[in-house]
Amino acid sequence: MTANTFGVTLIGMVLATYLPRLLPLLLPTGRPLPIWLERWLKLVPYAALGALIFPGILTVDPQRPWLGLIGGLAAILVSWKWNNLVITVIIAFLVVYILS
Q: Residue 73 belongs to what domain range?
């Protein structure tokens, strides 16, 4: 890694961690947010969760990536049906375990 690439990477990492902490301080607290911004902000946790979980689904078994996809699909269906985190995790684990 060259010094220039390292500097750009470091600046990018600083901005990625500093901006989310700075923005709430800069936003006015007395005025309500626009509707479109409120809707968008409500979707951020789901997008972050998907970004954290999906790579793990694809790397459960590198020789058989379909196992993780089926386990992820089972988790989606169970969480949609029962809306219970514990049951969702147990069923997805059992599906992958039984298929492997």
A: 3-99
Question: What tens digit of pLDDT does each residue of 37-77 get?
Answer: 889 888 888 888 888 888 989 898 889 989 999 999 999 99
Any idea what DSSP says for residue 65? T
pTM: 0.58
| CB neighbourhood size of 49 (10 A) | 10
Number of structural domains (the chain) is 1
Structure tokens at 22: 């700075």
DSSP-assigned letter for residue 59 = T
Quote the Cα angle for 72-78-82, to 5°: 150
CA distance to 24, 39, 59, 66, per residue, from 96 (Å): 41, 34, 12, 10
- Torsion angles phi and psi, residue 25, rounded to 5: -75, -30
